[in-house]
């Protein structure tokens, strides 16, 4: 999977948040978009997922066989963990996992029980997501991102709400479980992207 970004720009009301952005993102690589608060990291990631439409320019998802994927089908290629994307609060953890797997199967067909062990919440299976702490919810979001069998992973501010143990858990798994995928991060916390080979400053896109 390759994502080609061709001269894209995004304007909210009269303000250009991102402009003149041109780059290519390659499968098997990791990229972090960095920049100060309000610089446009989350906006750019949301443009790349197709959640938010570009004001100008074009984004293309190109398959390994060279075929372009229609924008309506991008969502099948990706998984997103971000503070602005909520889990389904009414479900128990087990219900959420079973629901998620109907749309995005887990890698190597891992079971929901194994998933719960993986995110270190083995006793939370019947607990309603609404009653999870913010750090527990973040582990669920990251676990879904690491375990979903899709080519592209978006992580926006991945260590949000994680304690020291949680950050350690994230760092232990982020490289191992994204090895053959295209990983896109948005961050201004160096620790959460220290392993990343490609750092892109969004301040350049003005
Ligand atoms: N839906 C929207 N309508 C209007 N302005 C918006 C909208 N979404 C984002 N913005 C503006 O776009 C700019 C960039 O916001 P964005 O959230 O992308 O920044 P960020 O780099 O991710 O910031 P942070 O580090 O604080 O998370 C901000 O000025 C923000 O107010």
From TrEMBL:
Per its UniProt entry, which superkingdom is the organism in?
Bacteria
Query: Which keywords label this protein?
Result: ATP-binding, Nucleotide-binding, Transport
Q: Which residues does the UniProt record annotate as the domain ABC transporter?
A: 3-204
Q: What is this protein called?
A: ABC transporter ATP-binding protein
What PROSITE patterns would the database entry show?
ABC_TRANSPORTER_1 (PS00211), ABC_TRANSPORTER_2 (PS50893)
* Gene Ontology MF annotations: ATP binding; ATP hydrolysis activity
PANTHER family referenced in this protein's UniProt entry, alphabetically: ABC TRANSPORTER ATP-BINDING PROTEIN ALBC-RELATED
Q: Does the keyword Transport apply?
A: yes
Tell me the organism's taxonomic lineage. Bacteria, Pseudomonadati, Bacteroidota, Cytophagia, Cytophagales
């Amino acid at each position: 999977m390759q994502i080609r970004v061709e001269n894209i720009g995004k304007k909210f009301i009269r303000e250009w948040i991102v402009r003149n952005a041109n780059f290519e993102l390659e499968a098997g690589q990791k990229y972090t978009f960095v920049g100060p608060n309000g610089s446009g990291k989350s906006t750019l990631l949301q443009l790349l997922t197709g959640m938010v439409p570009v004001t100008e320019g074009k984004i293309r998802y190109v398959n390994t066989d060279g075929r372009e994927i229609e924008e309506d089908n991008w969502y099948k290629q990706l998984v997103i963990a971000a503070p602005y994307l909520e889990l389904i609060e009414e479900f128990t953890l087990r219900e959420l996992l079973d629901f998620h797997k109907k749309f995005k199967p887990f890698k190597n067909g891992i079971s929901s029980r194994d998933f719960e062990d993986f995110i270190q919440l083995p006793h939370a299976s019947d607990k309603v997501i609404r009653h999870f702490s913010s750090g527990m919810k973040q582990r669920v979001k990251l676990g879904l991102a690491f375990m979903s069998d899709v080519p592209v992973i978006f992580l926006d501010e991945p260590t949000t709400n994680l304690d020291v143990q949680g950050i350690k858990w994230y760092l232990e798994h982020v490289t191992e479980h994204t090895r053959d995928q295209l990983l896109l991060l948005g961050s201004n916390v160096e620790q959460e992207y220290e392993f990343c080979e490609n750092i892109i400053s969004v301040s350049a896109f003005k």
